[in-house]
Write a structure and sequence with these properties.
The structure holds two protein chains of two kinds. Chain A contains no helices and eleven strands. Chain A is mainly beta. Chain B is an all-beta fold. Chain B has strands at 3-5, 10-14, 19-21, 24-26, 32-39, 46-52, 60-61, 64-69, 74-79, 88-96, 106-107, 111-116. In chain B, the strands form three sheets. In chain B, strands 2, 5, 6, 10, 11 and 12 form a six-stranded mixed β-sheet that branches. Classes of the chains: A mainly beta, B mainly beta.
Chain lengths: 113, 117
Amino acid sequence: EPEVTQTPSHQVTQMGQEVILRCVPISNHLYFYWYRQILGQKVEFLVSFYNNEISEKSEIFDDQFSVERPDGSNFTLKIRSTKLEDSAMYFCASSRALNQPQHFGDGTRLSIL
Amino acid sequence: AQTVTQSQPEMSVQEAETVTLSCTYDTSESNYYLFWYKQPPSRQMILVIRQEAYKQQNATENRFSVNFQKAAKSFSLKISDSQLGDTAMYFCAFTLYSGAGSYQLTFGKGTKLSVIP
């Protein structure tokens, strides 16, 4: 069964550095999402992406964050200048259509030192 | 804003027994979807079951079934004949059906289920 894949599984970065988290959604999916889960807290929506543009974003998704689909397969989340509070598990998800379930990747654990 | 509450942080069940995980939600909308996702120690979040709010019939997927009480805004998950592989974190999630935009999921905090041999 096709899966959403995320790399790396764990990223350790110094505060203030830029980080790019990568996702390969399922190939025939059209809607893409990023969520994050701070340790011990809820999974929170960050952003959704469709037709090469952001559909919705949460208040967490400030100017430090950006998303891109640089080619036909990858979907990336960039954090420009990381802060300690960006430490979290980041999940990518994709769905075939709006009313279809979202399929999640394994997540990338981001640790900011 | 929509909220999802899972009041049981941890639960355990004996193998082959039945367990019910609770979820309540709050919304003023009438068209929405509810989900249960499972996150085993391997981390990948896997969809367990989905319920459309307009459907009165409770969804069922093999050993997994839901009790959807729309008026009470309750959406519990029943796992029958529990297996060791059911050990995982279970998240209840909600999304509005708006027909446009995106269907961002709102999650509960999760219930950690341990199946005991």
